[in-house]
Write a structure and sequence with these properties.
With about 450 residues, this protein is mostly helical. It has a single domain, classed as Growth Hormone, Chain: A. About 80% of the residues lie in helices and about 0% in strands. It contains 18 helices and no strands. Helix 1 runs antiparallel to helix 2 and helix 5 runs antiparallel to helix 6. InterPro entries: MFS_dom (IPR020846), MFS_sugar_transport-like (IPR005828), MFS_trans_sf (IPR036259), Sugar_transporter_CS (IPR005829).
Length: about 450
């Protein structure tokens, strides 16, 4: 990854600020669309799409539809990774935004099982799958536009404007459900109120598209295309195949690094919400407020960690974050089981900060880990692989472990195990920060 060593012009600085704002807004809205599904799955989908099942079975079925979006994400990474490496980062990203917005509105318009029977959950899974494909392609487009356009020594900071879209999207989704929950009676919330956050995407999508269509593709990719137009030697004909055959080891290590961050995040987002309301009898709105406050800490931690990685390196922060998640796994549920809203907030907030130490530098780290001509494909695959097993599977697995053991110890053990796997992957992976300002692209022989 190359960058000029000269100071950027005022026009260039203005463009970078606009790009970072566009990246943050686009990522936030797309993750909003993705995350409101998890909240709805924990609160109402079991009741309205699986009405004949027991409460536990309905919850498991609801979370299994939640999982479908994560199963689809690697497919989205493959499809849009190919488009992003062959055609451009921006076209792939804009297509993803349209797809996720349309599928989200479709969920908001979906009839219930009482109205159309078994067709309702089938359509629900289909729309969730389309959401997953879009999100699977979106992440690579956002982080590469940001990091490939960044000034020298600022790639970690630039990448955080895509990464912060995750907690901002969660905050937007949580606020949406809180407002609806506080203004609509419980019966009306189950009947139709839950649809409002999904339908709101119809208003948000045009704003995001307006911003994104006014952003240029990254300078590095434009240089790659110009070289290809003159020599036909730079753009890989089959970037997915090239990425997998040449960089498979780094793809797997990159996926392993992210596993713990995903596990802790989705336990806090969906697992604790279901466990707190169904098993501990805590207030739904109170838990949403705790999640909202913890997400605000996550925003600050992601920005700090990404920016700090420009000074001290990507690996040291990710090592500390993975180790902290392993150590916090058991105190996490000890605090939640107090049934105190304050201690629930402390548990989720500290877990989120530890997770952010990995997630903050992660965008720049993956961007620096791969060559430009396969970067979209390789980075997207590495980021989306944990989605199948860890991200989507964690709320389902947490519910199943609680039902099988009657205790949260097994869930804490799962968190600790995934964190130790991530720590091992970080230790086995190369540091990329030393190449900042020159090149962070390894030769195929070094992968």
């Amino acid at each position: 990854m190359t960058s000029a060593n000269t100071a950027p012009s005022p026009e260039r600085k203005k463009h970078l600020r606009k790009l970072m704002a566009a990246g943050l807004v686009g990522a936030s809205i797309e993750w909003y669309d993705f995350f409101i599904y998890g909240t709805a799955a924990a609160l109402v989908f079991g009741t309205i799409f699986f009405p004949d099942a027991s409460p536990l079975t309905a919850t498991l079925l609801s979370f299994s539809t939640f999982w479908a979006g994560f199963v689809a994400r690697p497919l989205g990474g493959l499809v849009f990774g190919h488009i992003g490496d062959r055609i451009g980062r921006k076209p792939a990203l804009v297509t993803c935004l349209i797809l996720v917005g349309g599928s989200t509105v479709g969920i908001g318009l979906l009839p219930t099982a009482a109205q159309i029977g078994v067709a309702a959950p089938i359509l629900l899974v289909t729309l969730r799958f389309l959401q997953g494909i879009a999100v699977g392609g979106q992440w690579g487009g956002v982080i590469l536009l940001l990091t490939e356009s960044a000034m020298p020594g600022r790639r970690g900071q630039a990448g955080t404007f895509g990464q912060m879209g995750v907690p901002f999207g969660l905050i937007l989704g949580t606020v949406a459900f809180l407002v609806v929950g506080l203004t609509v009676p419980s019966e009306a919330f189950v009947a139709w109120g839950w649809r409002i956050p999904f339908l709101a995407s119809a208003l948000l999508l045009p704003i995001v598209l307006f911003i994104q269509t006014r952003v240029e593709d990254s300078p590095e990719y434009q240089q790659l295309k110009q070289a290809a137009d003159s020599s036909r030697a730079k753009v890989v004909r089959a970037p997915i195949r090239e990425a997998i055959t040449t960089h498979w080891r780094r793809i797997l290590l990159g996926a392993g690094i992210l596993g713990s961050s995903n596990a802790v995040f989705y336990i806090g987002v969906a697992g604790v919400l279901d466990y707190g309301t169904r098993e501990l009898g805590m207030s739904r709105d109170s838990l949403l407020i705790a999640s909202l406050a913890a997400s605000a800490f996550g925003v600050a931690a992601i920005y700090w960690a990404g920016s700090a990685s420009d000074r001290i390196g990507r690996k040291p922060l990710m090592i500390v974050g993975a180790a902290a998640m392993a150590l916090w796994a058991f105190p996490y549920f000890w605090l939640i089981n107090t049934e105190s809203l304050f201690w629930v907030f402390v548990a989720v907030a500290i877990g989120g900060v530890a997770s952010s130490l990995v997630y903050g530098p992660y965008a720049a780290y993956l961007a620096e880990l791969f060559q430009p001509n396969v970067r979209y494909s390789a980075a997207s695959i590495a980021y989306q692989l944990p989605a199948i097993v860890i991200s989507g599977g964690t709320p389902f697995l947490m519910t199943a472990l609680l039902a099988a053991t009657g205790t949260t110890l097994a869930v804490s053990g799962y968190m600790a195990l995934v964190a130790l796997i991530s720590l091992t992957c970080v230790l086995l992976s190369p540091e990329t920060h030393q190449r900042a300002g020159t090149t962070a692209t390894p030769s195929p022989a070094t992968t």
